[in-house]
Amino acid sequence: MSRHVLPPAGLLGLVLFLAPPSSASESGTEPVLDLGTRNAVDAIAVLDQGWSDEERLEYYYRPQGSRIVPYSWMLALHEAGTDLPFARDELILRNGYLPGTQDPKWNPDGLPLGFVKDGRNDWVGLSCGACHTGQLNYEGVGYRVDGGASNGDYEGILTDLLAALDSLDDPGRFDGFARRVLGKKYSEKRKAKLLEELGPNREYVRNYVLATETAVTGGYARVDALGGAFNHLLVNVAGLKDELRPLTSPVSYMHIWDAARHDRTQWNGFNHNGGYGRVARNVGQVTGVWSHIDFKPGMKTTTYPSSVRVPGMIETERLNRSLTSPAWPEAFGALDGKKVAAGAALYAEHCVECHEVFDRADPEREARAVIVPLDDIGTDPEMATTFATRTTKTGAFEGRRVGFGQGTFGAEAKAYEVLVHSIIGIMQAQPMAATEELLIAIADGRGTPGGAPIFASEEELKAYRARTLNGIWATPPFLHNGSVPTLFDLLLPPEERPKEFWVGDLTFDPVKVGYATAAFEGGFRFDTTLESNWNTGHVYGAELSDDERYAIIEYIKSL
Questions:
Q1: How many CB atoms lie within 10 A of CB 7?
Q2: φ/ψ of residue 17, rounded to 5
Q3: Closest by alpha carbon to 243, among 6, 415, 490, 435?
Q4: How far apart are CA 324 and CA 107, in angstroms?
Q5: Is 195 exposed, middle or buried, given 0-12, 13-18 or 19+ CB atoms closer than 10 A?
Q6: Number of H helices and number of E strands within the chain?
Q7: CA-to-CA distance for 79 and 401, rounded, in angstroms?
Q8: Rounded to 5°, angle at Cα 522 from 518 and 526
């Protein structure tokens, strides 16, 4: 892979030219070329967001205890129906994820961005970077947005993975797979042992896929991460098979710059970010993403050994604190100073009450989220309502301590209470990895800032969090459920917003600020008339003229 530097255009960072995706397999089988070709670019521009090249690679490829399949399997696996590698760039782009950078330390085999090797057990799993790295394609260059919103189709890539594993039922395909896995150690005996291992590993993947099946398709750039975490924990870990629920709340992948500096996180603000919360936020993320947890159903312990790497989560939090939002690249067009000034005045009148402004470069910056009740914000209620109201039978959790000073579980509980309980247990199983702040929080029963209750009331949870808008321009589509394609559309009255648009194309529109929305083969048609997909609410600015809307947008670009 050769290195080049683009001519100066206000662009910070290095630029890597990527090899084009493979156009044919070794047997002559033509691959499916849709989104994988559409989103391929000539170069990648890495913006300056406060990370060194080493820190960026650490974020992409630091293992966190997520385990999908054995590492050698991922390298050897072929896509179902072809003899093309599963982890190749074209298939990854087709599913909305991003090709990786080969690096001898962090990514020696050139796996996709965020697909990492857990060296302790030689598994491949996901890192934060898989779902929280965005890209904006403009004039042949892909502008990488670290900590941004992924375009990933989680359902799509899981379906492809399971299909690839199921295709190994064909004896000829399995023999080829075995030869690639075993290499020079190939023998009929070792091949037979590998076949024995295929069953339970594939069943693990199949159960995880079942736990993430949706009643409302997320498509590109959305996932019901919390609902999937509930299902994985309750069904796959705790064995509560009757608690499996089809997922109904796909939301945009959140951008995570300044997450460590907010008092609340998650779309509905349920995660208090003080005390144990700063580490728990990251531990909770991997808990729902292919973690192995030793639940011990026959015991009443509240300490859970797991594959989760708590020390790695602490390092991830360190990286989060040094990450800044991206500055608007001049390659997208220089900002108009007069429009910025006019937009600042309009922003102060219409926006700042909920979306405070702070200096993205201030090392001491902190922010307080504004929690807006559903009746006030008026946006699609599904995510907040489902999270607040989902209950579960507790099974073997019954009688175990809920959380810091919260009593014990009865026969039923809120699903998120069981999730928080499990996160605490995972952290307590690795006390030597915990920060001093975390240990004090566990010792004195303080889980949240000021000793606030861990569990909010149902009514408090029926709300969404408004946060600072620094860098928001780099995170389309907009609203928590991704139902509005551009910032310009968001400032229109709801009835004038697009009723449907296509998602998956990374081509960036720097005027309206969003991705291209025209129909294309392989794209996802976003229908805002469906429940969970409503584009209603957030009517602030609906009375503005188009010139005023563009002035606010110009100011938002400057944040």
A1: 6
A2: -85, 130
A3: 415
A4: 24
A5: middle
A6: 19, 20
A7: 45
A8: 55
pLDDT of 132 = 95
Question: Where residue 433 falls among pLDDT bands split at 50, 70, 90?
Answer: low
Whether residue 476 contacts residue 501, with contact meaning beta carbons closer than 8 Å, is answered with no
Residue with tokens 């098979």: 241
**Which residue, among 52, 64, 51, 129, has the nearest Cα to 286 in the 3D structure?**
64
Query: Mind spelling out the 3-state secondary structure of 122-165?
Result: CEEEECHHHHCEEEEEECCEEEEEECCCCCCEHHHHHHHHHHHH
Of the candidates 479, 485, 478, 480, the one whose C-alpha atom is nearest the C-alpha of residue 516 is 485
Per-residue model confidence as pLDDT tens digits over 113-161: 999 998 777 999 999 999 999 999 999 999 999 999 999 999 999 999 9
Q: What is the pLDDT of residues 528-552, one digit of tens each?
A: 999 999 999 999 988 999 999 999 9
Residue with tokens 């962090």: 106
Residue 114 and residue 100: Cα distance in Å, rounded?
Answer: 8
User: Which amino acid, one-letter code, is at 497?
Assistant: R
* pLDDT(380) > 80: yes
Identity of the amino acid at 269: G
Q: Are 369 and 470 in contact (CB under 8 A)?
A: no
**Top-confidence range, 5-14, 286-295, 313-322, 489-498:** 489-498
Which ranges of 32-113 would DSSP assign to H, the alpha helix? 35-38, 53-61, 71-76, 89-94
Sheet holding 69-70, edge to edge: 69-70, 123-126, 115-118
Task: At 6, give phi and psi (nearest 5°).
Answer: -70, 155
Q: Is the pLDDT of residue 170 over 70?
A: yes
User: Rounded to an integer, what is the distance from CA 458 to the centroid of its chain?
Assistant: 25
Dihedral pair phi/psi, residue 487, rounded to 5°? -65, -35
Residue 545 burial (CB count, 10 A):
8
Contact call for residues 555 and 465 (beta carbons, < 8 A): no
Domain ranges, ordered by start, for the chain: 1-222, 224-325+362-466, 332-359+476-558
Which residues on neighbouring strands pair with residue 526, listed in sequence order? 501
β-bridge pairing 43-46 and 141-146: parallel
pLDDT (0 to 100) of residue 524? 95
CA–CA separation, 208 vs 202, rounded Å? 10
**431/438 Cα distance (integer angstroms):** 9
Residue 113: left if φ>0, alpha if ψ -120 to 50, beta else—which one? beta
How far apart, in Å, are the Cα atoms of 303 and each of 232, 421, 424, 546? 18, 10, 8, 57
| Residue 276, pLDDT score | 65
Does 351 score more than 70 pLDDT?
yes
- Measured N-to-C along each axis, helices 310-322 and 53-61 cross at an angle, to the nearest 10 degrees, of 140
